[in-house]
């Protein structure tokens, strides 16, 4: 996005243009309106004239403190403020903000800054290890899914249990994959506890494109429509992506200009793939780096990735067997890298039979990730 110093805004035709957005020269205010309209359009069905008067919806908004989720909260907060100040005098939905501390304890001071900036909403903050409390079914799943030497000792702290489970996975790709699954399970569990109607993810078009590509690369292409498209999911709760029509670099510019400076929202740079060995490089990191570096040059191609996934006809989310780990329906058509076994041919079993038997069903993607379990140490002579 180039910075302009001459010419007038093509929209208002009054103020000097400061940004070139999708080949259009816009002033700062019209740029704000352009980005905001992309998000608000995705929330159109929740506008006052379309909302039921006696049915106040509640949405869960996962906040990572990054550019995308912070900008989503900012724009939706502006929309609700306009609704309250209008003749309607009410807002058509409530937002509950959830922050999950991925590494250890979450940053409570940072969340307090968001509470102060956006007081209309309610807030919850939990560490990732709280999944053992909010999603109790995960206890049995990881006990069976973990590596050959993994033992889930419930006498340990939740953080120790989580760290021990992650260490049973031998590659960065497997650990990143499992972290994403655990995060989704935790967010869904809390969303259901709070009786939310939907989860509003802050994923931009850029992020959705990298997710779609990484899902295919990891053998999770079958579940891609539920992971990047709006609508009901196999988890029994709706996923919505209001930022899906905005690119990451556009959000970075918007956040630097529009968000309160006190929030200190910066575009965190991913580590350069050139400085990472293949041992420490996940599929998500590799594809996110590619999409973010190439997305600004080839915007149409990146947008087409998400549009193509949107066109896929996903089967009803409540039919068929579901994976006990990721919760997605099981595609029974694949065979590599696992051999089909178990009742009905729906259970993937590793060819080398290193793992403990799973009593539940695994999808193809989770079976592939399970190939990265740490192998048992050879017995000493």
UniProtKB/TrEMBL annotation:
The keyword Ubl conjugation does not apply. GO terms for biological process: protein urmylation; tRNA wobble position uridine thiolation. GO terms for cellular component: cytosol. It comes from Blastomyces silverae. The lineage of its organism: Eukaryota, Fungi, Dikarya, Ascomycota, Pezizomycotina. Its main location: cytoplasm. Pathway: tRNA modification; 5-methoxycarbonylmethyl-2-thiouridine-tRNA biosynthesis. This is Cytoplasmic tRNA 2-thiolation protein 2. Belongs to the CTU2/NCS2 family. Keywords: Cytoplasm, tRNA processing. One of its GO terms (molecular function) is sulfurtransferase activity. Plays a central role in 2-thiolation of mcm(5)S(2)U at tRNA wobble positions of tRNA(Lys), tRNA(Glu) and tRNA(Gln). May act by forming a heterodimer with NCS6 that ligates sulfur from thiocarboxylated URM1 onto the uridine of tRNAs at wobble position. Prior mcm(5) tRNA modification by the elongator complex is required for 2-thiolation. May also be involved in protein urmylation. It is found in: Cytoplasm.
């Amino acid at each position: 996005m180039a910075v302009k110093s001459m010419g007038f805004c093509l929209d208002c035709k009054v103020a000097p243009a400061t940004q070139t957005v999708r080949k259009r020269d816009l002033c700062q205010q019209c740029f704000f309106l352009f980005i905001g309209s992309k998000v608000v359009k995705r929330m159109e069905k929740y506008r006052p004239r379309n909302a039921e008067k006696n049915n106040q919806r509640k949405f869960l908004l996962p906040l990572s403190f990054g550019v995308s989720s912070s900008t989503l909260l900012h724009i939706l907060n502006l929309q609700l403020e306009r609704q309250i100040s209008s003749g309607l005098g009410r807002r058509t939905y409530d937002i509950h903000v959830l922050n999950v501390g991925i590494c250890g304890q979450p940053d409570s001071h940072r969340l307090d800054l968001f509470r102060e900036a956006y007081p209309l909403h309610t807030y919850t903050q939990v560490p990732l290890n709280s999944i053992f409390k909010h999603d109790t079914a995960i206890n049995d799943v990881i006990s069976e899914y973990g590596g050959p030497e993994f033992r889930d000792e419930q006498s340990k702290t939740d953080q120790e249990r989580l760290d021990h489970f992650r260490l049973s996975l031998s590659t960065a790709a497997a650990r990143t994959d499992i972290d994403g699954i655990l995060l989704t399970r935790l967010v869904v569990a809390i969303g259901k506890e709070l009786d939310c109607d939907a989860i509003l993810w802050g994923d931009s078009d850029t992020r959705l494109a990298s997710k779609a590509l990484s899902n295919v690369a990891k053998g999770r292409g079958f579940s891609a429509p539920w992971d990047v498209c709006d609508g009901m999911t196999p988890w029994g709760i709706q996923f919505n992506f209001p930022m899906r029509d905005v690119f990451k670099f556009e959000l970075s510019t918007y956040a630097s200009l529009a968000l309160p400076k006190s929030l200190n929202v910066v575009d965190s740079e991913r580590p350069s793939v050139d400085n990472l060995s293949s041992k420490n490089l996940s599929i998500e990191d590799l594809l996110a780096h590619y999409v973010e570096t190439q997305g600004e040059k080839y915007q149409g191609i990146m947008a087409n990735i998400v549009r193509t996934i949107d066109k896929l006809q996903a089967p009803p989310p409540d039919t068929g067997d579901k994976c006990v780990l990721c919760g997605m329906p099981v595609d029974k058509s694949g065979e590599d890298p696992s051999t089909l076994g178990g009742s009905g041919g729906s259970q993937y079993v590793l060819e080398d039979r290193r793992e403990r038997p799973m009593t539940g069903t695994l999808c193809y993607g989770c079976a592939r990730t399970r190939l990265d379990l740490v192998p048992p140490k050879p017995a000493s002579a």
